[in-house]
């Protein structure tokens, strides 16, 4: 008996497992016919035979058919991944139940009718099946199918591991089949001791049948693993559709048809290439954009290629055909003839095709324009637009990559480039920069390696990174650069300009993590201070000096903001009477950390950090306030001299600042003298002369400070509205011993007297110097012979009261 049971189980299981190997509609037809037959014969098999397979274990033909139906239905749902399958199965159960009821009633009636031939003696009682029991069986089958599917959906949402999910599914199947064997008798015949004994007595057979039909499902999971995985990853069931009317379903399908039509329009007109591709790589369907991109179909060869195995390349290798991917594959690829067009390729699983086998949707976006734009933007971000050379960003990146490699960084700064722009315009300056860039690039190409980098770092400055530690070789490159840039530059047919450059060099590696650009820059500016057109090589002291200046600049800015600077006054005495006639206001600074900071240290820092204007305005206001305070205290009027820098005069709106300062402090303009160095107006007389005339209109007097130290002096004396000339101390030092200095100073004094200028001599320290200057008619004496610069409080004893001036006895 047991062997007969095994044979029936095998027979019932082989057919649905075989059907899963079929494709598309053919598979569905076989499943529906098989399930219908199992339902039809199941209603009668329980009355035909039962198999006693063991003591107390009896399995009826009806139980076998019920188990086969449930197993086949579950397998059908799994392989199709379609909620409508369940709807069709419910409808099929109802139709078969109705047929069984009608067929049983008609057959029983026919067999009981007199005169009907019954050659096999089939008893009519065999078809005396209650309509209620048939209907109840159908309802329970439908309920159990829905319950089982609900359990499946509930477990699927929990996203368990595949073996765990499969085990729970099969266990649920077994429990539902056992539940049916318990529920049906109690519902059909009521709950009593006799029925309970029958139910629980035959429970072993029902468990055996349930487990037996669970084994084909386990075999399906192992054999058709991908189909089971696809079922788990499919959309969840919309239960509303199972209860929808046909009209609702028709409307739903109509909407889906519209979506399909819209999707087809999008498919055909999309600028992205779209194609449905078989697992073999064959193109099943492609839109025009895909055909144009790959030069296939109607747009190219006239038919699709046999496969796409070498149509796309990534990382220098062909993109392999999909091998059952579970997720979308997306990557940048190259395609087209010569594999010279970049694109973004996505490969998405699309389920099984009509002819069997997996299909995939290929989506291809041509990014050639985006790549070109990106490359252009990257070029613009890393190159100078005027010269075409790399910029500072590229240089910084190259320096960061070198680490401990030996190299030299050369910074090249054009000398007097501003004069070209000022004299001939920026177009001429641009032409000079282009010619210089071409000459430097020629040197790089001829003498250097491909890895050596030439950059324009800004303005008239270039940088050359040489990946070599050979100092002799670097010196040769420096000579070639100076020779190339020392030649004239032709702007046009009628204009040539002379070009030269100052160079700064930093050699690496050095001890510690230090900035090569800052080092080369420090060497460059040291060379420019010493002699333009020379080469400066970085030394450690240059960084220390640069850091000191930066620190000094910060402290000076804070000192100005907090009024921590003092103003001292150096007296000016009449050369004959030795009476005080005026003072020169001088900035003095004592820092809590640095102590006394000499003017020779902080004045250049102020000029180099744009603090000179603030410093000049600070001294001007303090001097005017002190001068007004002296007048208010009853002291006689004296001349207060204040130094004004070139940048104040040309860019600082000095006339406006001076007017406001005089108005705010109340100091008389006639007692104020502005001292201007020759460098403020040399070769800028067209700019400066109107400003000096405005100063004269305000009532202040003007002195030339450090006279004789500029590029040219005497030619401007008659053109500028001067009142006074201050002879620089460098001309006073060696008189009266040096006859040449004596002759020069006497000439300056004589010329000044002819032009009605007052003369002030700076730096007078000896009696001999005083006597010489007095003899030649110098008006005022300033220097340590009489007094050094004094704080305001110490100066009060020297100031004359009322209209009398106090004569000072000179020092020994």
Total number of β-strand segments? 25
Question: CATH homologous superfamily of the largest domain?
Answer: EAL domain
**The biggest beta sheet, please?**
8 strands, mixed, barrel
Task: Report, as a whole number of angstroms, the end-to-end distance.
Answer: 146 Å
| Helix count, DSSP H or I runs of 4 or more residues | 27
Sheet/helix structural class: alpha/beta
CATH fold group of the largest domain = TIM Barrel
* Strand order across the largest sheet: 17-18-20-21-22-23-24-25
> How large is the radius of gyration?
53 Å
User: What is the level-2 CATH architecture name of the largest domain?
Assistant: Alpha-Beta Barrel
Low-pLDDT windows of residues: 299-303, 804-809
Specify the helix fraction band. Answer: 40-55%
Number of domains: 4
Mean pLDDT: 81
| CATH class category name of the largest domain | Alpha Beta
Overall 3D form: elongated
Q: What is the percentage of strand-forming residues?
A: 15-25%
Q: Features of this protein?
A:
27 helices, single chain, 4 domains, Beta-Lactamase
């Amino acid at each position: 008996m047991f062997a007969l049971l095994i044979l029936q189980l095998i027979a019932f299981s082989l057919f649905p497992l075989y059907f899963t190997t079929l494709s598309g509609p053919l598979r569905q037809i076989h499943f529906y016919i098989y399930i219908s037959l199992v339902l039809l014969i199941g209603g009668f098999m329980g009355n035909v035979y039962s198999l006693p397979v063991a003591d107390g274990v009896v399995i009826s033909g009806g139980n076998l058919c019920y188990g086969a139906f449930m197993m086949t239905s579950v397998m059908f749902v799994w392989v199709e991944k379609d909620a409508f399958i369940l709807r069709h199965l419910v409808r099929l159960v109802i139709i078969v139940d109705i047929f069984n009821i009608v067929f049983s009633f008609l057959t029983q009636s026919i067999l009981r009718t007199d005169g009907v031939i019954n050659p096999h003696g089939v008893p009519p009682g065999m078809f005396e099946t209650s309509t209620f029991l048939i209907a109840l069986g159908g309802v329970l089958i439908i309920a159990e199918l829905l319950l089982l599917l609900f359990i499946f959906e509930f477990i699927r949402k929990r996203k368990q591991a595949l073996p765990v999910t499969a085990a729970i599914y099969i266990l649920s199947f077994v429990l539902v089949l056992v539940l049916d064997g318990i529920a049906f008798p109690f519902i059909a015949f009521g709950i009593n001791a006799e029925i309970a004994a029958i139910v629980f007595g035959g429970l072993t057979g029902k468990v055996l049948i349930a487990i037996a039909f669970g084994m084909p499902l386990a075999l399906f999971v192992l054999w058709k693993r991908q189909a089971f995985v696809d079922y788990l990853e499919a959309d969840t069931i919309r239960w509303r559709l199972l209860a929808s009317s046909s009209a609702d379903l028709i409307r739903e399908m109509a909407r889906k048809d519209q979506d399909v039509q819209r999707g087809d329009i999008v498919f055909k007109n999309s600028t992205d290439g779209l194609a449905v591709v078989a697992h073999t790589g064959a193109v099943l369907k492609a839109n025009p954009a895909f055909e144009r991109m790959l030069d296939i179909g109607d747009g190219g060869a006239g038919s699709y290629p046999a496969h796409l195995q070498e149509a796309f390349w990534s990382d220098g290798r062909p993109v392999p055909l999909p091998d059952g991917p579970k997720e979308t594959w997306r990557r940048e690829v190259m395609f087209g003839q010569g594999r010279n067009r970049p694109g973004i390729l996505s490969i998405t699983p699309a389920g099984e095709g009509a002819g069997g086998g997996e299909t995939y949707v290929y989506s291809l976006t041509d990014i050639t324009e985006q790549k070109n734009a990106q490359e252009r933007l990257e070029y613009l971000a890393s190159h100078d637009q005027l010269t075409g050379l790399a910029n500072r960003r590229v240089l910084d990146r190259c320096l960061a990559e070198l680490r401990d490699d030996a190299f030299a960084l050369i910074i090249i700064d054009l000398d007097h480039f501003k004069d070209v722009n000022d004299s001939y315009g920026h177009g001429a300056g641009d032409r000079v920069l282009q010619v210089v860039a071409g000459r430097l690039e020629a040197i790089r190409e001829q003498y250097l390696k491909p890895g050596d980098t030439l950059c324009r770092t800004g303005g008239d400055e270039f940088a050359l990174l040489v990946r070599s530690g050979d100092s002799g070789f670097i010196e040769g490159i420096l000579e070639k650069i100076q020779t190339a840039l020392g030649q004239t530059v032709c702007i046009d047919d009628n204009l040539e300009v002379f070009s030269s450059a100052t160079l700064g060099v930093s050699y690496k590696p050095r001890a510690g993590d230090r900035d090569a650009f800052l080092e080369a820059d420090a060497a460059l500016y040291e060379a420019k201070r010493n002699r333009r057109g020379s080469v400066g090589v970085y030394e450690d002291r240059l960084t220390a000096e640069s850091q000191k200046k930066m620190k000094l600049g910060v402290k000076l800015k804070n000192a100005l903001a907090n009024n921590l600077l003092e103003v001292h006054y150096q007296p000016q005495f009449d050369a004959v009477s030795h009476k005080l006639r005026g003072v020169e206001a001088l900035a003095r600074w004592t820092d809590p950390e640095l102590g006394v900071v000499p003017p020779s240290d902080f004045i250049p820092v102020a000029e180099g950090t744009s603090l000179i204007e603030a410093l000049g305005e600070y001294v001007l206001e303090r001097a005017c306030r002190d001068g007004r305070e002296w007048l208010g205290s009853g002291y006689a009027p004296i001349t207060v001299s204040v130094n004004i820098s070139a940048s104040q005069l040309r860019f600082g709106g000095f006339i406006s600042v001076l007017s406001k300062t005089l108005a705010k402090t109340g100091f008389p303009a006639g007692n104020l003298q502005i001292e201007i160095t020759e460098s403020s107006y040399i070769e800028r007389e067209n700019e400066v002369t109107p400003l000096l005339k405005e100063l004269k209109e305000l009532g202040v007097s003007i002195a030339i400070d450090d006279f004789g130290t500029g590029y040219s002096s005497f030619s401007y004396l008659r053109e500028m509205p001067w009142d006074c000339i201050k002879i620089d101390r460098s001309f006073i030092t060696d008189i009266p011993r040096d006859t040449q200095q004596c002759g020069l100073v006497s000439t300056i004094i004589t010329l000044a007297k002819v032009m009605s200028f007052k003369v002030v001599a700076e730096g007078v320290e000896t009696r001999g110097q005083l006597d010489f200057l007095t003899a030649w008619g110098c008006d005022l004496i300033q220097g340590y012979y009489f007094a050094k610069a004094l704080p305001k409080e110490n100066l009060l004893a020297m100031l004359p009261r009322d209209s009398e001036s106090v004569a000072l006895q000179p020092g020994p």
